[in-house]
What does this fold into?
Amino acid sequence: MSMAMAMPMCRAMQPQPQSHDHCTSPHMNLRSSFLLLPHSQCPSPFLNSLSCAQSQIYSIRSIPHPFNWTPARRRPRSLTVKAMAAIGEKSKKVLVVNTNSGGHAMIGFWFAKDLISAGHQVTVFTVGEEASEKMTKPPFSRFSELRAIGVQTTWGKPAEIGKIFESTMFDAVLDNNGKDLDSVKPVADWAKTIGANQFLYISSAGIYKPTDEPPHVEGDIVKADASHVAVEDYLRSLSFNSWCTFRPQYMIGSGNNKDCEEWFFDRIVRDKPVPIPGSGMQVTNIAHVRDVSSMLVLAVEKPTAANGNVFNAVCDRAVTFDGLTKLCAKAAGRETAAIVHYDPKSLGIDAKKAFPFRNMHFYAEPRAAKEILAWRSTTNLPQDLKERFEEYVASGRDKKDIKFELDDKIILESSRAAEPATV
Amino acid sequence: MMAMNAMNHISGIAIANAININNNNVKAFFTGSKPAFLTASSSDFNGVRLDNHPQQFQTNKLSYKSRGRVEITASSSSVPPKKILIMGGTRFIGVYLSRLLVKAGHEVTLFTRGKSPVTQKLAGETDQEYAEFSSKVLHIKGDRQDFEFLKTKLSASGFDVVYDINGREAVEVEPILDALPNIEQYIYCSSAGVYLKSDILPHFETDAVDPKSRHKGKLNTENLLTTRGVNWTSLRPVYIYGPLNYNPVEEWFFHRLKAGRPIPIPKSGLQMTQLGHVKDLARAFLMVLGNEKASKQVYNISGAKYVTFSGLAKACAKAAGFPEPDIVHYNPKEFDFGKKKSFPLRDQHFFTSIEKAQTDLGWKPEFDLVKGLTDSYNLDFGRGTFRKEPDFSVDDMILNRTLVLQS
It folds into this structure.
């Protein structure tokens, strides 16, 4: 793989049907960014001290960490199934059971594309009905892109998965749908009966017990009453040859079913102040979905190593609320963002409704994936948010008429107490 | 590819059984038993890193005692005995490092002005251990700011390796490099304070540094070492703590806890920082010695987890056996403290990733925060020893004003 492929990518995700030739998948080059520079080619850490501009600082970061050069991805990408068989590599048959809404929806979309790129075979089984209104939203509205590259798409109820697939064999089954045992059990039980080698589950980093000592790392205490925990425990008891659970946080990426960065862009492009609960120092993890997807692909390709593990499906950098706001402003071509900090309690505001993220430190690190799967994080918020903003504008959302009732209430009440901080 | 994965997995199990540092979790790690019962402190990714890299065993020669802690016997077969000079070595980091080096069979000389005794028996150290150490360690008395003296004294001294623990400015290092042109390795105690403040964290070694920071001397030294072409290694600790700490980090909290006073914490208390135990740092210094992987490399060295300011106050209380403290938040901008420090830590998020050291060196911190603070308390403050008398005048300013506002 050439050095060129290891360079940072700044490519807008084209929301158009892909050609049949999956070699042109935009994801192919993304994977190459995992190739690390060998020691001899490490940039000097002191190059950084010469730069003052924010963009230059971040450009160094976009070069993967120049240590521990591991040829994690020696196999050439985007081979056809036949080609893989020819060189003795096993193409896996993977079933993705995908939720029909929410922040996790696009995981299945990206994962399916990456699996095809990697030469595997994929079926995406979306919960519900193909004709439902939910399917008019992204990523579902773009499932033609999946079919164009050879992904099988189908719909139905997870409880009836046995009827739909009968005894069709799959090497790996990913449940990216259920938050509780009722939803996942039928899928897991069926996967067991068909003799699937591997079961993967998208859980949530939200199940970690809040701590004074961030970050959440794999093995930390989880909330015993969290429904995902019951699922993880059940999966463990089923003794698949390989099973693992992935705990994501917040994600950005094309095809997102839930607002993330858009919430910030909405305000920034309209020159409205951004209301942030608390100090703005709260730290969270915003990963590009491609990082979550690549982690899943590695787990599918290394089932033995992955077995029995918890993986925090996040990127390896955290960001503060204020920091994220500033980055969004920069991505939108603004020098500054007007931030208004407020205390939700004293204003009688429900922060859950007023702000897209949990009002607390919510910060996990992907230590297990790095250690066990030789996975590398590629999320680069400054660059990724630029891409996200391009798509935001391309969709015309910047021109949309949006009401900011709750914002207005917050800003009005807060301006009595403090001046808006310009950052 | 599959076979290699299997092999790594199996060798991982073998390592796990041999190490068995955190008995519960090691098994859990590989058999996947309930994570819910594991405490944070025993998580593998919390502080214990299981290496699946076969090459670790060749370079680091860690000896594993079954069912016990990993001990660095640092058998002489791993790094042949060196003639080592430590700049400093009598106050804090060097006190522990020099002991490790002597135990590993190296000849250790401390270069200090002699303000502190060359050696002192440590709390918890047996007479025999102390005698073995003190009888072997050598001393050069001098002021390193006297560059001419330094250069003259060190020329033809034959030191193989220099540990520069107390260097601040690049100009202090030049005479040493001039005096020892054939030096095998210059190991420098730098600081994570060199990183440019960022909203995106943690700091990795590749992150931007701040040429205007208070620690620019450290940065300039690292640059000097690079330009001089010497084989160097630089460690960047964050906040160091442990018995004999002369920077009042944990001591600041212990004083207030002992006095039954509330802990004043600036702003939200959500600011995240990172403490690293001095003994873990000393081990990291040992592990880079003669290590090719460490050549011309910078490593962040600190604890495996970060901690909020409020969390640190609670951890200190827990470690010292005090009840959970009363925390009073205040806005520093509303006060004029003059030159006095109102809080021992910088008022910002400040933490680093120690991943590089773990991956490259096979180093991992052995102390989690509460365990480390307990060690510090039991061997230092808890015995009635501390470096600085408490000054509660700033606290009273804060508390009085807060009380007034509340009434």
Notes: Chain B touches chain A through 69 residues (CB under 8 Å). Residues 293 and 360 of chain B are 7 Å apart (CA to CA). The radius of gyration of chain B is 22 Å. The longest strand of chain B covers residues 107-112.
